[in-house]
Every structure is written in structure tokens, then in C-alpha cells.
Amino acid sequence: MVHKRWRWMLAALLGFSLVAAACSKDTSSDKGSGSATTEKVDVPKGGTLTIGAEQEPDCTDWIASCAGSSWGYWMMNVTTMPRAYENTWDGSTADYKATALLDGEPKLETSPKQVVTYKLNPKFTWNDGTPVTSADFKYTWDQIANGEDIYDTTGYSQIESVDASSPETAVVTYKTPYAGWKALFGGGYGILPSHLLEGKDRAAIMKDGYTFSAGPWIIDKWEKGVSVTLVPNPKFDGTKPSLDKVVFKFLTDTAAGFQAIKANEVAMLYPQPQLDAVEQISAGTLTDINSKVNDKTGNIEALWMNNAKPPLDSVAVRQAIAYSLDRNAIVKKLFGGIGVDQAAQALEPALVAQYTDMEAFKGYTKNLDKVKSLMEGDGWKKGADGIWAKGGQKATVEIKSTSGNARRELTEQIVQQQMKEAGFELTIANQKAGDLFGQQLPAGEFQLALYAQVLTTLEPGVCTLFCSKNIPTDANGNVGQNWTRTDIPAIDSDLEQVDTQLDQAKREAAGKTSMQGLAKEVASLPLDPLPNILLWSKKVVGNVQDNPVMGPFYYANTWGVKQ
């Protein structure tokens, strides 16, 4: 999915995500607001802010396949890369806003072709003083649309040309309509500096960090396995940082993160909601710590089903599995302590609710009579061991997730127990995150997988995930992100319209229809919104909040640390 509309969430040991914690039980009362600003005080100058980071990225070449890490995006991309639009967050809704890079809103023309004209602010520069120009737009598009080993080309591949004849005007012409155009030249990628990269090995220059920036921060040092250090960009055309440094200390274990914040070794965490974290939030074991829980996120965690692997290549079997599970009970067991107890009912997150039917899967509740009817209708019979069998093959399904993630392991165990009661044998075969996301899922080497997808723009990602044209094949260079091999001809057109339809009402209608089609055939099964949790010391002041698209560190240039 391009411009990293989605990034996968690694798990406890690496994941994108949140942490838990709170100084009191009233944390859950903030659920859904998503933003929490500390008391209004003068932000002090100077000092170092140390933040616990649960994941170290593989690389910082943002458009390459190695850069799928959410933590890399939060720490180093949004803090250094320029973008045409930012995603704003007011605590309940998200929207697009043109950044200071642009001299006003771009001009959109829809006939005879879609053309977007960007007027650029000549005072907006890279940290070497060179203005961000139309040549940067053209270079970025060309690298993504025509480069090798690209994470996702969606949208950029639909651009016909970028006219950069005037440095302060970028004219982008599309071959076919693309509704999500505001997510381009930003999103999970940003805009690349042509004057530094043109004609050079971009991947080599950017892989292990880079010295250029048009954001409020510069990557000062990336000490592999230890930390990433950011320092202020004195050329930034916006609010310049008050802090001298921000250090992201790699703590790839949620428990270690909690110990570090208790010992004042770090002043902020954005961890995954692991079991011990949820317990501590519920119990209120942390003192002098602010916290915020948000379940209106860009995250969706699901049981992703390989529609091409038996027995999941049968619609009836997928439906029967959906009727085997009490998903609300699973979510309550995992997150009830922080006030999240209802299963997600769509394969898209709440952040893009207008483009989907948020209750499409609501009819799938535990119903063993339905399981029996569906399985017998599909030719299955229960053996003496209580497991369904057909043609000498048992209804055995293997599930994969990221190893070492206690929350996901508990989820698997609950699913395993519930499926066994319904006549299915579930085996657990968890993997290292790099192997799972880098090799097995793209290659279709799985039956059932448990992980989360994370939006990095406000564009729905259903076509990227479920359009048949995005199934990885030799024909498309095995780069499609339809890892579930979903192929439902009846909704392919609607899925594509979510990307291409410029009429907003028709686009939203297509999104709802396509989600209903995905639910009807249980292409995969949503579980939970994987709530975001942000913890920070009361010594940290300024605009501290969680932007569910850009992440909390997007606002670090407004923060200070009281001594």
C-alpha cells in the first residue's frame, strides 16, 4: 500500500504501538479523546528528553521495502521529512491540512484529466538552505513509481507526469483519477531532496540515517541497537524545538519500558497494550505519570485469512470460524481493564469510518448451530475426536503471529480453545517479526495470521489489502499487499472506486458496499482497534498528545522538560 498507507505493527518485541500506563484508574475515562495536553506553562529551553522506543527500524529509506516499521516512521520520518499535507487531530476527528511548504491550498482540476497544481513556499528550505522545489516532487514521484524494491506504489503509479519547469510550482497530472491525492507527497514517505539524491544511490545514502531535513529535527546519530538522537533543525520554517536533544532509547520489551519510566531513565513511552501494561493501567501503579488511552485509532488488528490455502479457501469454512468465536469476550479479556471491550466490526479502522461499514461483521457472533450447518453443508463431518474432517483431511488450521508477544499469545490461546469447541484444530506457529512480515506473509506461506495494520494517512486501504490486482504474483513483481489472496470479483470494482472515485458520496458508498462484500465472504475477521496508549512524565510540558496518524512525536518541537 503505498506511501505507506499501512504499516504493519510488529509485536511486543518490536511493534508499532502503544504502551500502557497510568497514574490512576481514571485513565480509561479519557478513552476516545486521543489527545491530552499538559498544563499550560512556559516551555523551558534546553535539556534532553529520553523516550523509550519499542522497535528499532531496519532502515530509513522510507520508500523501500525495508522501511515498513511504524517506529521508524514516528521517530525519524515525521520529524525530518517535508510533506504537502499533515494529518491534524483535535481529539476526536482527523483531517488534512496543507503544511507551510505550500503557498495555500493546491488547485485540483478533474477534467479532462485530474491535475493538481502545488504552489510552493520559497522560504521553506532543507537544512542546507536549499528550497524545497518542484524538482523534489518530480524526483520523489519518479523514484516511487519507477524504482526497484519500493514498499508501495499506490497513487504514485497513477501519475502520468510531474511538471517541474517552475521551481515554485509542481503540476501533477494523473493517468487515471486518484481520490487519495492528498496522501501523496507526504503520507508515510514525505518528499525527497532531489539536489542531494538525483543520480546517486538513494538506498545507500538513506539506509542507516541521513543528514538532510526539512522538518523541525535532524537525525544526529543512530547507534544501532542502542538509540536514535535528534537535534533541532535551525532552518526549520515553523516552531523550532526548545529541547537540545530527543533521544529514543531502544527498549524492545514492554516490561523493560515500564521499569525505565519508573526509574526516570525515560520520560515517555508509547508502548503496546501488553497484558502487564493493561494491568498496571487498571491498578494505577504509576505515579507522577500522565497517560492517555485512545481507541479511535488508525489501527486494526485481525485474524487475517489466506483465502487461497485449504481449508480457508472455502467461504463456508471461513464463515464457520467466524461463528466459532466470541470476539467481544476476547477483546474484553485483553483490554477491558482500560475500557475497551467491544470487537471491531470492519476491516478498516475507526479513523476512516466514513469510507466503510463499521458494523459489517456484527452478525458474526458465537453460534455453534451455524457452525454445524455451514460445515455439514460444505461436506464436513465430525470425527470421534470432535474435529471436522473431509476427504480424509481434518479441519486443522495453523496460526502465525510475532513470537514473544504475550498479548497475542493469549489471544491465540483463547481462539484455539473456542475453535476447538466448534470442531476446529488450531495449531500455533509464531515467528520472528522479520521472517513473518518480510517473507512468509508476502509469499502466502500462512493459513491464519494475527497482527495489526496501521494507517499513516487518512485514506482507506481496502483496495491495497483486498483488490485482486494486488495479490502478489510474478506479474506484479510480488509487491502487492493483498497477502490474504482475497479474490472477490463481485466487489473488485467497488474496492477500486474507493481509490479512484472523485465524487465523495459515491466513494463512501463504494467503501461501504465493498466492506459488506468482504464480510459476507469473511475475507478475514476483525478483532480489535488495538488502542493507543501514551505515557509521559509530568516534567514533560507542551503540546503532548497522540496523533493517531502521525504519532505523538510529531509535536516534539513544542515540548520542554522541567528541571
Structural write-up:
The chain is an alpha+beta fold and 563 residues long. The strands form six sheets. It has a seven-stranded mixed sheet with strand order 9-10-11-2-12-22-13, sandwiched between helices. Strands 1, 14, 18, 19, 20 and 21 form a six-stranded mixed sheet that branches. It is built from 14 helices and 24 strands. It is globular. The longest helix is centred in the last third of the chain and has 17 residues, at 504-520. Helix 10 (406-421) links the parallel strand 18 (396-400) and strand 19.
| Strands in their spatial order, largest beta sheet | 9-10-11-2-12-22-13
Q: Termini distance?
A: 44 Å
CATH topology of the largest domain: D-Maltodextrin-Binding Protein, domain 2
CATH class of the largest domain reads: Alpha Beta
At the fourth level of CATH, the homologous superfamily of the largest domain is Periplasmic binding protein-like II
**Major sheet attributes:** 7 strands, mixed
Radius of gyration using CA atoms only: 23 Å
Structural class: alpha+beta
Question: Which consecutive residue ranges, at least 5 long each, have pLDDT under 50?
Answer: 1-39
Helix content: 10-25%
Number of individual domains: 2
